[in-house]
Recombinase family protein (Erythrobacter fulvus), 551 residues
Amino acid sequence: MAFNKTSPEHGSVPKRAALYLRVSTGRQAAGDVSLPSQRDLNTRYCEAQGWSVVGEFVEPGASATDDRRPVFQRMLEEARSPDRRFDVICVHSFSRFYRNGAEMELTIRQLRKHGVEVVSVTQPTGSDPAQELMRQIIGVFDEYTSRENGKNVSRAMRESAKQGFWNGATPPLGYRIVEAERRGTKIKKKLEIDPVNAELVRLIFKLYLQGDGGTGPLGVKGVTVWLNDHGYRTRKGATFGVGPVHGILTNRCYATGKWPYGVRSSRTGERHDPSNIVEIDVPTIISLDLFEQVQARLARNNPKVTPPRVVNGPTLLAGLAVCATCGFGMTRSGTTRRNRRYSYYSCAGCKLKGQSVCKGRHVPMEKLDKLVIEGVADQLLVPHRVEQILEGLIDRASAKDRAVTERQHQLEAEFDTLKSKLNRLYSAIEDGIIDLDEELKQRIARLKTQRDITQASLTQIASNSANLEAITPQKIAAFTTLMRDRLRTGDFRARKDWLGSVIRRIEVDDQLVTLIGSKQVLAGALTGQNPTGAPVRGFVRKWRTRQDSNL
């Protein structure tokens, strides 16, 4: 491109120019708007105008849709300073400066107030009204072009995800990106299991659910500390943090083999419409059953559900022991006599609200802990006692076998019918026999909801049957022996977790301590499939699910 040289007016000082050079992507850097090309054109333009180039601001790989560009911000800050070293900002085109019409115009006007002009090499510039109108039109057109390009790129990436390809983001821990196929110059990628990091993912789930063999199950922070203490590091060589470990424990793709693409906007962080989310198939690393057990424990230990003092506190019966008189929890208290510390379980109702609410009671902590552990070990965890407790449950279940079997057959037939209806509708839509209008969408949604409910009912029936069928005298004997040993000789964390999973409430009276649990929970613990139910906030007394009585 040739430029006509102009000479500065006689006696005037030549203007000082700064070059602003920007590309958005590596592909642009290799094309006709590469940084060297922009530098050459801008420099020759300044020379033709008789301006001296005093510096340049280079911004590689930054979008111009907003001002979140470090070099751009540094240039604006210098332009507004009293001792600025340039009078003109020279750009290849206004799209290099901004791709937002309103923001560009506002920035140019602010710079003019500080005596700095923005000049485009390839597009008309100046203060004439016609030239300003043309610049504004160019800015709006550049913004429109940028948004259309963004839509096309997003559409192409979503289509690539629908075909099962990975779009280049950092994969979850345990996976690595591999080349799947080539389409011209484009390389399509997929995820495969990284053997080393996959073992680390399995270890994290095991530590949270079972511990390392010498301890009980660890919390999220406990898992993080254990990994860092034993020399485990992230892929980048950094130590683990609580947030990333929690993200691994809640990432469903490890068990489901489905990675959701397009959940949030990469720029704003806002959630996209669920109908636009695409699930990419990836190999599974852990079993779905293990993942669900971890989610159940995370839900129980959620600080919004269970107070942190119950989960992580040093008190064995915290959250379980309550005063038999007023129903308030028994909390830890203590006193010191002759340089010796004595710890007690004390009624929180009396401590917080006075003896008019409850006369209160104080039980030595060591005494109540020992009483509960020995009582559970000697009176509950013995084979004949467990058989006696579960006998009625098993008998009732056996008596209902015929009804359950009939119900299962009905659900299976209903499931097959619903599935067949959906398949026929899908085929009719694909063949063009019917159009997918709003009424048909609602009908499909209703059928899918009925199908999912039926499938969940079948799963629940199968799970309940498996639980009861798995209870045998041999399994009861092995379970009680193991649990007695853990309660008496296991570490504090393991004892606390096991008591909390089986016992729901311990009522402490002056002469009697009552342990309250559930036969279903005991059966679930025995078979390794302990039902958790919906989380209930531990902070709220007299909580009710539907708020339907005694408000």
